[in-house]
Design goal:
Layout: H1 4-21, H2 39-61, H3 66-80, H4 93-111, H5 115-134, H6 138-147, E1 153-154, H7 157-162, H8 164-168, H9 176-185, E2 188-192, H10 197-201, E3 206-208, E4 211-215, H11 219-241, H12 249-263, H13 285-292, H14 295-307, H15 312-325, H16 329-339, H17 345-359, H18 374-379, H19 392-395, H20 398-409, H21 416-427, H22 431-442, H23 463-484
Antiparallel strand pairs: 1-2, 2-4, 3-4
Bound molecules: iron/sulfur cluster.
InterPro entries: DNA_primase_C (IPR058560), DNA_primase_lsu_euk (IPR016558), DNA_primase_lsu_euk/arc (IPR007238)
GO molecular function: 4 iron, 4 sulfur cluster binding; DNA binding; metal ion binding
Keywords: 4Fe-4S, DNA replication, DNA-binding, Iron, Iron-sulfur, Metal-binding, Primosome
Length: 485
C-alpha cells in the first residue's frame, strides 16, 4: 500500500505516462496495467468487455457471417466500449483506451484458469481485435503496424521480378491487363510460413524455402496470427502467476463470477432486467405467459397452474420476474392467492404472503431484489427432478425439451423442422442462443428475421428482456393495424 506522498508521486507519474501510453486505438496489450484502479472500475470495464465477447461467441454459435458479426459488435462497441481514433478531437481517447486496456487485463485474469477458457477467450478477443482493425482509421492503422515488429520484410524488386508469374497467380482479375495492374500496385511481404498457417492452408501465398510471400491484401492474417500468439503466451504466463493473487477474495469473487458467466455463454448481468413500462394485473398474467414469456417462465407458469403450487426457488424465479414485468405488490398477492387455490387463507397468509412482500422489499432487509438474469438461472440453484425452476434449455433432458418446445410454441409457428437447429445449439452449450433462435422463430410472423435476435442482433440474456421485447413487438403491430384501419 502507498503512503500519501508515494501515492501523489505515483499518480503524477501515471498521469504523465497515460498521456503517451496509448497512441493508437489498436492494442496488442503488451504491458500490464501500472495505474491504480478502484474495485468498481475493475469490475465495470471487465463486465462491459465481457458483454461484447459473449455476443461474439453467440455470433459464432449462430453461424453469423463475418459482416453480420461486425455489425453487431460495432453496435456494442458504441454502448459498452467506445473507442475513437486520434482524429476525434473532442473525445478523451486516452480514457477510452485505458478502459479498453483495463477490461482486457481483468478478463485475462478471469480466463487464464483453464485451457478451454483460454481458447475461447483468445478466439473472441482476436475477433474483437479484427473488428477494431477493419474499422480503424487507415492512417492510424498504418502507423500502428509500423510501430511493431511483425517480422515481415517487403519483397525486393529483384525478387518480385524473379517470381512475378507465381506472384501474379495470387491476384484477382479476369483479364491479363487487370492482373498486371493489380501486380503493379500490390506490395508483397516475406514471412516465415509458420506465421501464416491459415493462408498456407488456403493456398493464398507463394511458398519458397520455408518463406511465405504474402500479398498486402492478406496482411491482416499476419497481424491476427501475431495477436493470437501473443495472447496465448501471455495467458500461459498469467496462469502460472495467478496463484499469488488467489488470496485476495475481493478480486477472486469478481473473477470467478465472470468466468462462470462466460462458461454459460452469457455475460454477467447485475441489472434487474427491463420493465415494460406498463403495470400488469393478476388477471393478465395467464394470457401474457402464453404469448410472451420465454420457456423458463412458461414452464413455471404451467407448473403453477397444474400443481396449484411452486417450490421456493420456483416462486422466487417467477415472482421476481413478474415483479419486474410490472406486477404491483397488491396484484402479486392477488395472483399468488388465486394460483395457490388449494390452500386456506390462513395458511397462505402465514406461510406465503410474508415472502411475497419480502421480495418487494416490504419486509425483512427491505431490499429491492432484482429479477434473475439468464446467467443466474443457468448457473445457480440447480433444479432437482421435482423442481420447476431453472432454464429448460440447460436443465431438461433433450427429449423433454423437444416435447416441451413443440407443446409450448407450435401455436406460435415453431415446427418439428426447427428442432434440429435449436437442439444442435443446446448440445454445444449455447443455451441462450437456442432461446434467442426460438424467439426469432416464434416472432417471424411479426417480421423478426433469423439473426435479428431480440433486436439489432442481440441475444437473450434476461427473461424479462425476452418478454418485454415480445410485448413491444405486439404493441407495434397493433399500432400499425390501427393506423391502417
Ligand atoms: Fe429463460 Fe434465459 Fe433460459 Fe431463455 S435462456 S429460457 S430466458 S433462462
Amino acid at each position: 500500500m502507498f503512503n500519501n506522498h508515494e501515492r501523489r508521486k505515483f499518480n503524477q507519474k501515471s498521469e504523465h505516462s497515460i498521456e503517451k501510453e496509448w497512441p493508437f486505438r489498436l492494442n496488442f496489450y503488451d504491458k500490464s496495467p501500472w495505474y491504480e484502479v478502484t474495485l468498481e472500475e475493475f469490475e465495470k470495464h471487465a463486465l462491459d468487455r465481457l458483454r461484447i465477447l459473449a455476443e461474439i461467441e453467440s455470433s459464432f454459435a449462430r453461424n453469423r457471417s463475418w459482416e453480420e458479426l461486425k455489425t453487431v459488435t460495432t453496435r456494442q462497441f458504441k454502448d459498452y466500449l467506445p473507442l475513437n481514433s486520434n482524429s476525434a478531437s473532442t473525445v478523451d481517447t486516452q480514457t477510452e483506451r485505458r478502459n479498453d486496456h483495463l477490461g482486457h487485463f481483468v478478463l485475462r485474469l478471469a480466463f487464464c484458469r483453464s485451457e478451454d477458457l483460454r481458447r475461447r477467450f483468445v478466439k473472441a478477443e482476436t475477433a474483437l481485435f479484427r473488428v477494431k482493425y477493419e474499422s480503424d482509421d487507415a492512417r492510424e492503422r498504418e502507423l500502428f503496424l509500423k510501430s511493431r515488429d511483425f517480422q515481415w520484410n517487403e519483397v525486393e524488386p529483384d525478387e518480385r521480378k524473379q517470381y512475378s508469374s507465381e506472384l501474379k497467380a495470387l491476384g484477382k482479375g479476369s483479364t491479363v491487363q487487370q492482373l498486371e495492374e493489380w501486380f503493379e500496385k500490390e506490395k508483397f511481404y516475406k514471412v516465415r510460413w509458420t506465421q501464416v498457417p491459415d493462408l498456407v492452408n488456403k493456398r493464398r501465398v507463394l511458398l519458397i524455402d520455408g518463406w511465405a510471400y504474402v500479398p498486402s491484401k492478406e496482411q491482416l492474417s499476419i497481424v491476427l496470427r501475431a495477436f493470437e500468439a501473443n495472447l496465448e503466451n501471455a495467458l500461459d504466463r498469467t496462469a502460472r502467476s495467478i496463484m499469488r493473487m488467489d488470496n485476495d477474495s475481493r478480486l477472486t469473487d469478481v473473477l470467478n463470477h465472470m468466468s462462470r458467466g462466460f462458461v454459460a455463454g452469457v455475460a454477467s448481468e447485475y441489472s434487474s432486467g427491463p420493465a415494460t413500462g406498463d403495470e400488469i394485473t393478476a388477471d393478465m398474467v395467464d394470457d401474457l405467459a402464453k404469448r410472451h414469456f420465454p420457456l423458463c417462465m412458461r414452464n413455471l407458469h404451467e407448473c403453477l397452474m397444474r400443481d396449484r403450487h411452486l417450490k421456493h426457488f420456483g416462486r422466487l424465479q417467477y415472482g421476481l420476474f413478474l415483479k419486474v414485468l410490472g406486477l404491483s405488490i397488491d396484484e402479486a398477492v392477488a395472483f399468488w392467492r388465486k394460483s395457490f387455490s388449494n390452500l386456506t387463507d390462513d395458511k397462505f397468509n402465514k406461510e406465503y404472503k410474508y415472502n411475497i412482500r419480502h421480495s418487494y422489499g416490504l419486509e425483512g432487509k427491505r431490499a429491492n431484489y432484482p429479477a434473475k438474469s439468464c446467467q443466474q438461472i443457468l448457473l445457480a440453484d440447480k433444479p432437482g427432478p421435482s423442481d420447476c425452476h431453472g432454464c429448460p434449455y440447460r436443465h431438461f433432458a433433450p427429449d423433454n425439451l423437444q416435447t416441451s418446445l413443440l407443446a409450448t410454441y407450435s401455436s406460435q409457428g415453431l415446427t418439428s423442422a426447427d428442432l434440429a437447429e435449436v437442439m444442435r445449439t443446446v448440445k454445444e452449450g449455447h443455451y441462450h442462443v437456442a432461446c434467442t433462435r426460438v424467439f426469432e422463430i416464434t416472432h417471424a410472423a411479426a417480421g423478426v428475421k433469423k439473426g435479428e435476435g431480440i433486436g439489432e442482433g442481440e441475444s437473450v440474456t434476461h427473461p424479462n428482456q425476452y418478454a418485454v421485447k415480445s410485448i413491444e413487438i405486439e404493441k407495434a403491430q397493433l399500432g400499425d393495424a390501427m393506423v391502417v384501419e
